[in-house]
């Protein structure tokens, strides 16, 4: 793992001006990548006070996460749903099986 990728993992969710932000690696060909519906999840019903970091922390035990994002309103409060993209399909399946009826 390159030093840059290690730093991104270490500071994935910094707080800037009182708001939790996300740091993702720059991927030159990100636009050309296809959305993988088999390893990406839509998560509804999460706590309104959850940040990207909280979502990441909750799901990281199921496998390596590429991205975790809470949908935010203009005032940076949660809309109550988010998205988690896993590196592997098996991780997404494991997460679904484990939390399908969970109330957050």
Structural class of the secondary structure composition?
alpha+beta
Arrangement of strands in the largest sheet: 3-5-4
Total number of helices: 3
User: Mean of residue pLDDT?
Assistant: 82
- End-to-end CA span: 33 Å
Provide the CATH superfamily of the domain at 36-99: RRM (RNA recognition motif) domain
Low-confidence stretches: none
The secondary-structure element order is HEEEHEEH
Q: How many beta-strand segments?
A: 5
CATH topology of the domain at 36-99: Alpha-Beta Plaits
In the CATH hierarchy, the architecture of the domain at 36-99 is: 2-Layer Sandwich
How large is the share of residues in beta strands?
Answer: 25-35%
Shape: flat
C-alpha Rg, in Å?
Answer: 14 Å
* CATH structural class of the domain at 36-99: Alpha Beta
Major sheet characteristics? 3 strands, antiparallel
Helix percentage range: 25-40%
